[in-house]
Design brief:
Oligomer: single chain
Number of strands: 0
Structural class: mainly alpha
Shape: elongated
Radius of gyration: 39 Å
Helix content: over 70%
Number of helices: 6
Order of helices and strands: HHHHHH
Largest sheet: none
Distance between the termini: 117 Å
Length: 182
Amino acid sequence: MPEENNTIETNEEVETTENNTNEEQENTTYTQSEVDSQISKAVESALKKREAKMQEELEERIEKERNEAAEYAKLTQKEQEEEDYKKRMQELEKREREINNRELKAQVESDLKENNLPLTLADTLISVQDNEKIKGKIADIKKDFNDAVNAQVKEKLRQETPTQSTKELADDPFTAKLAKYK
């Protein structure tokens, strides 16, 4: 039996200690230097994680390049020339696509300006990749945009129907006084 009493007392002490700790945490204030210290630690931790991630990516890229170089070294002279030719062609095609996309974006932006539409739509429309289809889409957008604006304008300008008649009242005192002087 005495052991049971000790256990109960211990549980009560633990609860009291937890309550005191919670109260202390709620009332704790920090100085500016403590806050700065915590912020510095958090920033350092984030930088270390970022640096580790970048280092890992760099190592992966290096390993990939080494594997490609080893494969390239195994090729014959003719195969190496063919591989070089393929790489150059891929780079040229990539550059050509980039140039075409820039030209297309410039054309789309000018079409959007002509139709008084936001230029933010240009990136979305470029995905179509056909100038004629893009012009058709711009016309559709312009029509939908104008319809939406007109509907909103009508909604804002709508007025309630007058509740009183605008006819002259027969027993209007002002009209009666005017009739006397005629």
